[in-house]
Amino acid sequence: MISGGYGRCAAPVCGALENSTTTRGVSHAPRIIAGSLRGRRLIVPAIGVRPTKDRVKAAIFSALDARGLLQDAVALDAYAGSGALGLEAVSRGAASVTLVEPDRAALAAVRSTVKKFGIEGQVRLIADRIEMASTRFSHTFDLVFVDPPYETDSDVVHDVLIQLSKCVPGGTLVVERPTRGGKVAPPADWTVVWERAFGDTLVMFMQPVGIPQV
């Protein structure tokens, strides 16, 4: 199942979203819940995607906004899936977002959503696994969303967090995991600064030790 789930994708890294992509086989489902794109529907593959639930998404972004972590942020959605988290961030004031997604159908759907929303200038798509993509980033990020498929082993997620922590110095990792058996430790010299459970979903904000807390 895709949450930004893994799939094979031979497409190259995508920068500007210049070419339209067919939306055959996709359906409209999740929506942007606040900000400049409020109420707009995302396009998602017809099967295989687990977008973040609205109440969880609302809680995540309310907490981020309360801490002043959204406005003008340079964001990364490491397991983009439908793009729900990264595009919500743009709607609420993030300057830009990089969406990493290796699955062909999911990537085509996100590309179509971005074009429909008219936000090509704020979004970069990368067709790859985050483990590979993160070795090629040319800049750092303020905010990174990490929402891997729930079945992903916590040790694997921990290794990804270690890798991503190098891309977000002084920033925030937003980690979404299953409540049962999904908790994951932060990288060395990082700490969990906010944690909430919503039914079967656990959300953690992680930041480097010593960052002033708001």
Distance N to C terminus: 36 Å
Strand tally is 9
Shape category: globular
* Helix percentage: 10-25%
Q: Treating each run of at least 4 consecutive H or I residues as one helix, how many helices?
A: 5
The major beta sheet can be summarized as: 7 strands, mixed
Give the topology string: H per helix, E per strand.
EEHEHEHEHEHEEE
Stretches where pLDDT falls below 50 for ≥5 residues? 4-28
Residue fraction in strands: 15-25%
Question: Averaged pLDDT, please?
Answer: 86
Task: Describe this structure as you would to a colleague.
With 214 residues, the protein is an alpha/beta fold. It contains five helices and nine strands, in the order ββαβαβαβαβαβββ. The chain has helices at residues 54-66, 84-91, 104-117, 130-133, 154-165; strands at residues 26-31, 41-45, 74-77, 96-100, 123-126, 143-146, 172-178, 190-198, 201-208. It has a seven-stranded mixed β-sheet, sandwiched between helices. A two-stranded antiparallel sheet has the order 1-2. α5 (154-165) links the parallel β6 and β7 (172-178). The longest helix has 14 residues, at 104-117. The protein is globular, with a radius of gyration of 16 Å. The chain starts with 25 loop residues before the first strand and ends in a 6-residue tail after the last strand. 44% of the residues are buried.
